[in-house]
Write a structure and sequence with these properties.
The complex is a heterodimer of chains A (135) and B (668). Chain A folds into two domains: 1-31; 48-119, Cytochrome Bc1 Complex, Chain D, domain 2 (Orthogonal Bundle). Chain A contains five helices and no strands. The longest helix of chain A has 28 residues, at 4-31. Chain A has helices at 4-31, 48-57, 60-64, 84-92, 108-119. Helices cover 47% and strands 0% of the residues of chain A. With 135 residues, chain A is mainly alpha-helical. Chain B has four domains: 4-76, no CATH class; 89-263, 3-Layer(aba) Sandwich (Rossmann fold); 283-459, Rossmann fold (3-Layer(aba) Sandwich); 469-664, 3-Layer(aba) Sandwich (Rossmann fold). Helices cover 42% and strands 14% of the residues of chain B. Chain B has 25 helices and 20 strands. Chain B has a six-stranded parallel β-sheet, sandwiched between helices. In chain B, strand 12 (371-374) and strand 13 form a beta hairpin. The chains are: A mainly alpha (135), B alpha/beta (668). The A-B interface holds A 7, 10-11, 14, 57-59, 61-63, 65-67, 69-73, 76, 96-97, 99-102, 104-106, 121, 124-127, 130-133, 135 and B 374-376, 378, 380, 460, 464-473, 475, 477-480, 483-484, 486-487, 501, 503, 506-507, 512, 588, 591-592, 595-596, 598-600, 602-606, 608-609, 643, 666-668.
């Protein structure tokens, strides 16, 4: 309980920072000319095999399931669902329940390896070809 | 607390043994102790080795009050008194069984214990071991969880006999689950109150206030002092347990009250059981709810522990169809058909966000329905529903609450709260809504219903497609496992008896299978206590047995390991049940929690699995089951082998026996 006011203050500061940044962002957007859309960053070359090892080792599979197909706690993340920039950004700064992976525990190259492995997952069979999934 | 029957005896009114004679029944404790000493020595002589007996016989008398040497003459001599029930007598526990029979118990579940030996014997020899029939359990936690599962199918409580202190201690977690799930379980405890005549073990198993340990999570308990007192309390306990909000109750039965004879001539009436009518919502408040629902543009019903009986689901369908309103079934009960076009469970969050009126029906967690808590290093909350949305609650949760255990969740302020049983309130609400619906509103409702049906179809199709990913992977994906099980049972009269996961409304059976009967989905443990799933499945399968239904459990490995002895109970009593192991070889949810801590603390994320794994060695569940007489196959890692294995196991189950198929699976 003694820490609570401090924690509240921290939360308030974060919220305030977010509001300030948002306000600044809106103001800039209203006053400045529209920026040119940046070219999407290309994914660095990833090592698929190492990505598979990391996917297990750092616990991605816990929520996204063994083949990145999605589980109860995390959505499907492959193959070929997200551009690299969004994949990396969300890994660092997730907005939902996913725990953040900092560069200290997972380098950009590690994330790129995982990205390569996720995108190399095989495409599934057509749903209507599977009698077990007949409606 | 004063031990009951000793206190009564000191007043010279030994109520429950009016016919006892000095010859047959020693009136005071010392004589009884003497008899027991002799009996114990004789017993020792019978089981002891001959050499030891000879040595004892040769030993000189040690003291004036030492027992006589064990000689053939002593052993064949007439005892001082013959203590058997007289022709004009019956046991107190015989009367107890008569009372329990009057309450309609189909089964008693028990792990045997000497504190209820009198009742146990009466159940067999006076009651004929039928209605109730004794089911042998290997752990009291199994007994209670089986009763919990049985109720979910049958709608009737089971009595669980448990042994004094230690039996209740074993049972307590399962009682807590039943409490949190508002399920009636009728717990009967043996106890020896009179300290003057307790045997050795009875000191450990005797207690002044036996029910104290579970009083925070039971609805009522009593420790009757006489048989008349017992009968009234036994009936009262049943009434209290079964009146919404339902909950477990405890009856503590003194060993003396069970075992001492009573005269056959003594008139001991059996009180009549009259079940109270469940409380329905007040008429004016119900009409107000009807007005809000008819005027709403996007009303949504959220049902959790709503359906008490099969009629509950029918009425909710009727109300939803009149209004063409979306329904979210949070799944503590089978409230709404999974493939009904108005079922919005698979897009629950979107339905809540869209709603302008939310009707909560026996919601366990109203706050969590309209808000979200983000579990990160600093937990945060936010409102999910519109701030302008009108919130209505109909719940027995407003009628009854206890302080210590926090299962009541956060307080959600609502616009209208009706303290009542939703199922009992639905008939009046349906009538009130019908009276208010106009032609114009009906047209609006039809348009709304068409949109909801389209959204529901899209969600179902997305689920089918999602299940195709990792279709051929090994270990087997959980989606593939559930699809294979569904493929085998879809044309059967099936019942999914397992509690799956706490987040079960979005798990694969609910996403892929067609649940349209009340017994096809039984909800979860209530309190989240692991070790519920396996025994609750067996209890539910027992309830399904008389209907000839195919009971299916998707059985997690961690849960099974709490008390696998329930497999023996299923085999011994020939309870048909297909258990398909979802064997991911870990306490998966706990791995995720530790993983979250690893990430948040930023000091290594590759050791989070330590302490939560069930591998090295892998558990062979097929051998475990086979060791207890259960047909079993596995572990199966190739998904293409799963269908044929399930077919073979179902053939066994259809013959009336349990079967286990162990499947090495991915995480959920």
């Amino acid at each position: 309980m003694r820490n609570l006011p401090r924690r509240r203050a921290h939360a308030s500061a974060c919220a305030l920072l977010a509001v300030t940044l948002t306000t600044i962002g809106i103001a800039q957007a209203q006053n400045a000319p529209a920026p040119k859309p940046a070219a999407p960053a290309a994914a660095p070359a990833g090592k698929i095999d190492n990505g598979g090892v990391l996917f297990k080792k750092v616990g991605c599979y816990q929520c996204h399931a063994n083949e990145a197909q999605g589980g109860l706690s995390g959505p499907r993340i492959g193959p070929a669902l997200f551009p690299w920039a969004r994949f990396l950004d969300y890994t660092r700064k997730p907005s939902g329940e996913m725990p953040p992976y900092s560069a200290k525990v997972l380098t950009d190259q590690d994330v790129a390896d995982i990205y390569a492995w996720v995108n190399a997952r095989p495409r599934p069979p057509a749903v209507n070809s599977l009698p077990q999934l007949a409606p | 607390m004063v031990p009951p029957y000793r206190a009564v005896r000191e007043l010279g009114n030994f109520h429950y043994a009016p016919s006892m004679s000095p010859k047959r029944h020693p009136p005071a404790s010392p004589e009884r102790r003497t008899f027991l000493q002799k009996g114990a020595l004789a017993g020792a002589a019978l089981v002891g080795a001959p050499a030891a007996a000879a040595a004892q016989a040769a030993a000189p008398p040690a003291a004036a009050q030492a027992p006589p040497p064990l000689t053939h003459a002593v052993e064949s001599a007439e005892p001082e008194d013959i203590q058997v029930l007289g022709d004009n007598e019956r046991a107190g526990s015989d009367y107890m069984i008569d009372v329990f029979k009057s309450l309609g118990f189909e089964y008693f579940f028990a792990n045997p214990g000497s504190s209820f030996r009198g009742l146990h014997e009466s159940l067999l020899n006076h009651g004929g071991n039928t209605a109730p029939e004794l089911i042998t359990c290997t752990h009291e936690e199994n007994s209670v969880a089986m009763a919990h599962g049985f109720y979910k199918v049958d709608g009737k409580p089971i009595a669980v006999m448990a042994h004094g202190t230690v039996g209740l201690q074993h049972a307590s977690m399962a009682i807590y689950n039943a409490w949190c799930d508002r399920v009636p379980v009728y717990v009967i405890l043996g106890n020896h109150a009179d300290a003057a005549i307790r045997r050795g073990a009875e000191w450990y198993h005797g207690v002044q206030d036996a029910a104290a340990m579970v009083r925070d999570y039971t609805k009522w308990d009593d420790f009757p002092w006489s048989l008349t007192h017992f009968a009234e309390s036994a009936v009262r306990a049943y009434q209290i347990a079964m009146t919404p909000p339902m909950a477990p109750v405890v009856m503590v039965l003194d060993g003396g009250l069970q075992e001492h004879p009573i005269s056959r001539n003594e008139r001991l009436p059996i009180p009549r059981l009259t079940m109270p009518v469940p409380p329905a919502g007040e008429r004016g408040a119900v009409e107000e709810v009807a007005k809000m629902l008819v005027a709403a543009e996007n009303p949504v019903f959220v049902a959790d522990r709503m359906a008490r009986t099969p009629n509950g689901m029918k009425m909710l369908v009727e109300l939803a169809e009149i209004l063409q309103a979306g329904v979210i079934d949070q799944g503590s009960r089978m409230n709404f058909p999974s493939r009904h076009p108005l079922n919005q469970t698979q897009r629950a969050r979107a339905a809540v966000v869209d709603a302008d009126v939310i009707l909560g029906l026996e919601l366990v967690d109203y706050w969590g329905t309209v808000n979200a808590l983000r579990d990160q290093l600093h937990r945060t909350t936010r409102r999910v529903a519109k701030t302008t949305a009108k919130l209505i609650s109909i719940s027995t949760g407003d009628l009854y609450i206890k302080a210590n255990y926090q299962d009541f969740r956060r307080l959600q302020d609502v616009d209208l709260a009706i303290a009542a049983d939703p199922e009992a309130t639905l008939p009046a609400l349906i009538d009130a809504v019908r009276r208010l619906v106009t032609g114009d509103r009906q047209r609006v409702f039809q348009e709304r219903g068409a949109k909801l049906a389209q959204a529901s179809r899209a969600a179902a199709e997305a689920n089918r497609v999602a299940a195709t990913f990792a279709w051929d992977a090994s270990p087997v994906s959980v989606a593939r496992l559930c699809a294979e099980v569904w493929n085998q049972i879809r044309n059967e009269d099936w019942s999914l008896v397992s509690s799956y996961y706490s987040n079960d409304q979005t798990n694969w059976p609910r996403r892929l299978w067609n649940f349209d009967k009340p017994y096809q989905w039984l909800g979860h443990a209530g309190g989240g206590g692991i070790g519920y799933g396996a025994p609750a499945s067996v209890g539910a399968a027992l309830a399904n047995k008389k209907h000839g239904r195919l009971s299916v459990a998707i059985q997690t490995d961690g849960d099974m390991m709490y008390s696998p002895g329930v497999l023996w109970t299923a085999a011994h009593h020939k309870i048909p049940l297909l258990s398909v192991m979802n064997n991911n070889r870990q306490y998966h949810q706990e791995v995720m929690h530790v993983q979250k801590m690893c990430n948040a603390r930023n000091r290594g994320i590759d050791r989070g699995e330590i302490g939560s794994q069930l591998s090295n060695p892998n558990i062979d569940f097929a051998k475990l089951a086979q060791s207890m007489g259960v047909y079993a196959e596995g572990p199966i890692s190739n998904p293409n082998e799963l269908g044929p294995a399930l077919a073979r196991a179902i053939a066994v189950v259809k013959k009336g026996e349990p079967a286990v198929v162990d499947v090495a699976t991915q995480v959920r």
